[in-house]
Design goal:
By secondary structure, this protein is of the alpha+beta class. Helix 1 packs across helix 4. 24% of the residues lie in helices and 20% in strands.
């Protein structure tokens, strides 16, 4: 029988913290940690270790009171829907559960041809693609973490359905699903929503992940994400949530404090091939993780990004779809832009412990 809740969570001893009474009176040395997938380096600044209450931020609060084009009754104020889960009502009318519409101000447009061409040493093509908004609930007052579990499952089904539809367009190479929660994370409207952008190229960051995971597979004949899941599950120091289908873990070399990844326990390279049982359990894991972050960090702004294989690629034994959740607690500044290194003031072992201690919500 499938378990919907973690089947075990170990409670490791809390990492040692520096204080003035420690031997020699010196803080622990900072650590350089290497991401096993991309090979990028992260500085874990242990001498400036920060607890959840140490971060200065503005909590996300749903204020309401303004006109919202995503609320029921305003369907004709948005572009016509491309997908909606309804209870028998007519298209572009109230009575929906999840609604997907083209972005009114799209980054890319579906019309036209790519028309690749050179301009001297430079290359360009037409901005062909798709940019859509997934309105996650008809209730304006609810954040993602407050949505019912079945509602989040419906959102995941919308992602899957849109992926299967858009991948029929041979011009499109990659579909990126993401969520911006809060103004500091890039959200322009407070009504809970996520987005997809379908691109005619594979993003560089995704390609770096694919190339890095392929190098690891060629050397060890194993998937790096599967190895990560096995090692972290066994050690449990960076584990936040475990179920039969998923593990949520603060990665070994996180770029940002409280960065958390959700990994399927079984190897799957393409999200759109996910089975119903997987989506049902993922809804529980996502809801639980976001509620833990909300409780631990007092409703922070955050982004989450769904990383999956390019749509026209066959099954990849070396790549593993996953979701990265990143609270907006620090800013990327000159050092990060100039060096390509990230500076993280909270070790992932401590972040995972804080999130575990938030309990099941």
């Amino acid at each position: 029988m499938r378990s919907r809740v973690p089947f075990f969570v170990r409670r490791p001893r809390a990492p040692r913290r520096y204080n003035a009474n420690t031997p020699l009176g010196k803080p622990p040395l900072p650590e350089l940690r290497k991401d096993p997938i991309t090979g990028s380096w992260v500085i874990i600044a242990t001498d400036r270790s920060r607890r959840p209450s140490d971060f200065s931020r503005e909590s996300v609060v749903i204020k309401g009171g303004r006109f919202c084009p995503f609320c029921p009754g305003n369907e004709l104020k948005t572009p016509p829907e491309v997908l909606a889960y309804r209870n028998g009502s007519a298209p572009n009318q109230p009575g929906w559960n999840v609604r997907v519409i083209p972005n009114k101000f799209p980054a890319l447009r579906v019309e036209g041809t790519l028309t690749r061409e050179g301009e001297g040493m430079y290359d360009k093509m037409n901005g062909v693609g798709a940019h859509e908004v997934v309105i996650e609930s008809p209730d304006h007052s609810l954040t993602f973490g407050e949505l019912p579990e079945k509602q989040i499952e419906s959102i995941l089904w919308a992602f899957r359905d849109r992926s299967l539809d858009l991948k029929r367009d041979t011009r499109l190479k990659y579909i990126l699903f993401f969520k911006n929660h809060g103004e500091a994370a890039g959200a322009s409207l407070e009504h809970s929503h996520s987005q997809l952008i379908a691109l005619p190229v594979v993003p560089r960051q995704v390609q770096e992940e694919i190339d890095g995971s392929r190098r690891y597979f060629d050397f060890k004949e194993r998937c790096v994400y599967c190895d990560m899941e096995r090692q972290d599950s066994g050690a449990a120091r960076r584990v936040v949530i475990e179920t039969d289908h998923f593990i949520a873990v603060c990665p070994y070399a996180p770029r940002f404090p409280f960065e958390t990844w959700i990994l399927p326990r079984r190897h799957v390279s393409h999200f759109e091939t996910a089975e119903p049982a997987l989506l049902e359990n993922l809804a529980w894991v996502m809801r639980t993780l976001i509620r833990k972050l909300d409780r631990t960090l007092e409703n922070p702004p955050y982004n989450w990004i769904l990383h999956t294989a390019p749509v026209h690629e066959p099954y990849m034994p070396h790549y593993h779809w996953h979701i990265e959740v990143i609270p907006k607690l620090t800013k990327v500044a000159g050092f990060e832009w100039g060096s390509g290194f990230y500076l993280n003031p909270t070790p992932p072992e401590e972040a995972a412990k804080f999130l575990r201690d938030a309990g099941l919500i």
